[in-house]
Amino acid sequence: MKKLPLVSIVIPGKNSGWLLEKCLSCIKKQTYKHIEIIIVDSGSKDQTASLAKKYHCKLYNYYPHVQKGLFDAPHKRNYGAKKAKGKYIYYVDADMELTPRVVTEAVNACIKYDAVIIREDSFGEGIWARAKNLERRCYWGDDTVEAPRFVKRSIWNKLGGLDELLGGGGDDWDFYQKLVENGYQVGRIKAIVMHNEGKLNISKLFRKRFMYGRDALKYIVKRPMIASRSYFPIRPAYLRNWRLFLGRPHDTIFFLIMRFIEYSGSGLGIIYSFIANYEK
Question: What's the whole-model pTM score?
């Protein structure tokens, strides 16, 4: 096993133990076994520490200086990457559950590619979780939404990791653009990562998108052309997947309502950020 290249999986989080155990269990069930797991926490009061011990993870407590209401995940991902020893870095979130061949396929793909995009699906309770599942499946193969999270560590270091000023997806998209601008090759694999959405509700969807919106303005300013495609509400992916929508009419209705609510939250978050920056 030690002859295989080491893969460092970085998981940022705080008080996400209720999701973390399933995530760690799925990592331990990977067909590829030469993996180190790095959890970057910030003083969780739940079972995170005991889970890290149970699953033989490296646990680091790190407290990035981030304004309340903004994402600290890019900071924690970069911190975890600095602690990594692997040839490859793969950053996931606590709500992600890897299907068994994700790491095997990603490592094999990196014989040809420098970084890998892994398709994301989701599951959860209730109609909003089904609407989110419908949305995620539309994005398979969409370069304006999907981004590589599995990358050679040498390249990660050359590019300086993630832009810590960007959150809510902007850090992922920006890193993808840095790879492309520097001539690195990005591939895709067939294996899927599942998001555990839990029991979604309108309030949770709105609040999350409001947080995304507060960070979105920075990405829009940095990459206006790409951002216009990533944030445009009528995506080509929706048109390409019209059969998927026709096959799930009930979910489609709630998908449309969900996207309206999410864009409203994001828009208000952008306005909030703009006003806050203007007042400075």
Answer: 0.92
